[in-house]
Design goal:
By secondary structure, this protein is of the alpha/beta class.
């Protein structure tokens, strides 16, 4: 019998909804899951949008997936380089998005942001 492996999913949030932008979110809501059901929910504050630090911050929580509305290409590259799966294009209710993800019904649009606001903090040492 195969054991279920616990996984953590982080969702960038603003006012209890999915944030429009990963780096500028108010909080991250962390969902511990066995791949089918949510077993724990925890909210942590975003420590601030600083060059290259948020992907590491999220990874240190134990998260393997980040769900958000949008994310800059540099942040995506940094997330991917440390093993974080990125899902962009999400909106609305945080818990519903996680449930959809667990059912395979929420997939990334892979439409990453290149606007100056997303890349404003880019620094060569980040890549």
């Amino acid at each position: 019998m195969k054991e279920n492996k616990m996984t953590m999913i982080a969702v960038a949030t603003d006012h209890s909804k999915i944030s429009e932008h990963f780096g500028l979110c108010e909080d991250f809501v962390l969902f511990t899951t066995d791949g089918k059901k949510i077993s724990n929910v925890e909210k942590i504050a975003n420590p601030g949008h600083r060059p290259c630090e948020l992907p590491d911050f999220v990874a240190k929580t134990g998260a393997k997936v980040i769900i958000t509305g949008a994310m800059g290409t540099t942040a995506v590259a940094n997330c991917n380089s440390i093993g974080l799966e990125v899902v962009v294009g999400a909106s609305g209710d945080v818990e519903e998005a996680v449930k959809k993800f667990l059912k395979g019904q929420l997939v990334s649009t892979d439409e990453f942001c290149d606007a100056w606001t997303c890349e404003f903090f880019f620094h060569e040492s980040c890549v």
